[in-house]
From TrEMBL:
Protein biosynthesis listed as a keyword: no
Source domain of life: Bacteria
Annotated protein name in UniProt: Iron-sulfur cluster carrier protein
Subunit structure: Homodimer.
GO terms for MF: ATP binding
Family listed: Belongs to the Mrp/NBP35 ATP-binding proteins family.
Residues where ATP binds: 26-33
Function description: Binds and transfers iron-sulfur (Fe-S) clusters to target apoproteins. Can hydrolyze ATP.
Keywords: ATP-binding, Hydrolase, Iron, Iron-sulfur, Metal-binding, Nucleotide-binding
């Protein structure tokens, strides 16, 4: 019976409901976008069907990070079809919607509209949707969290940012929005020597983990400051995609996020 089969198919799709995971930070420049991209790639490597929305409207970086610059999404049935990266992650970013090389100087309502269109894109089949939030903890972030309520949130912070309590504000933002905090990723933790590859820890290790857990936020892992991360990111090859030294750390973080 065709009708039974169709109903079963619809129910099957419903059963694989997509989880929305927001990635936020207390301030900019801590590596939130880098962690979002590599978390998405690591989840795809672990067998998930992953989508990524670059909600950083005025400073989109996901097209560069995932190597999808120059690709343009098409629309079908008024829904944007995400762009496919080489890493098994489909993506929508303002970088794909704005004219290449043009500054994004849109007014608030237009930018908000673009964000809604990306979140309401055709994410059929995707079981994890990562949302790279704009930096900071303002009203825009809260409105977005309330309208497209994520199932959980990941906070990215540097050791210094934790000490300065910026990360605490990010935790508070998600608490206020009623979004469970899955955990904290400590980025730029320790320094990898580009010559010998050894990691040194000028500020000691363990402080961030303790500080996070003190605030009731589980610890997901740490990524050192490593020139190869910046270099590969700039080339559109996420370190989580290869067999380099950073891939296992991102795989472990991905496992913690879906545990
Ligand atoms: P945010 O999204 O928080 O503004 P980005 O992800 O854009 O931060 O990172 C800011 C800069 O720092 C980028 O040039 C990026 O390549 C670099 N970066 C991020 N994390 C690391 C790291 N662990 N090691 C080296 N460079 C990093």
């Amino acid at each position: 019976d065709v009708r039974v089969a169709m109903t079963a198919e619809r129910e099957g799709q419903g059963a694989r409901r997509k989880r929305i995971i927001a990635v936020g930070s207390g301030k900019g420049g801590v590596g939130k976008s880098t962690v979002s991209a590599n978390l998405a790639v690591a989840l795809a490597r672990a067998g998930h069907k992953v989508g990524l929305v670059d909600a950083d409207i005025y400073g989109p970086s996901q097209a560069r990070l995932l190597g999808t610059e120059g690709q343009r999404p098409v629309a079908r049935d008024k829904k944007l079809i995400p762009v496919e990266s080489r890493w098994g992650v489909s993506v929508l970013s303002m970088a794909h919607l704005a004219e290449p090389g043009q500054a994004i100087a849109w007014r608030g309502p237009m930018a908000g509209n673009a964000l809604v269109q990306m979140l309401e894109g055709d994410w059929t089949g995707v079981d994890v949707l990562i949302v790279d939030l704009p930096p900071g903890t303002g009203d825009i972030q809260l409105t977005m969290l309330q309208r497209f309520k994520p199932d959980g949130a990941v906070i990215v912070s540097t050791p210094q940012d934790l000490a300065l309590l910026d990360a605490t504000r990010a935790i508070a933002l998600f608490d206020k929005g009623g979004v469970p905090v899955i955990g904290l990723v400590e980025n730029m933790a320790g320094y990898v020597c580009p010559h010998c590859g050894e990691t040194s820890d000028p500020f000691g290790i363990g402080g961030a983990q303790a500080a996070a857990e003190e605030r009731g936020c589980p610890f997901l892992g740490r990524i050192p400051l490593d020139i190869s991360i910046r270099r590969e990111s700039d080339e559109g090859v996420p370190p989580a995609a290869g067999d380099g030294p950073r891939a296992p750390a991102f795989a472990a973080i991905a496992a913690g996020v879906t545990a």
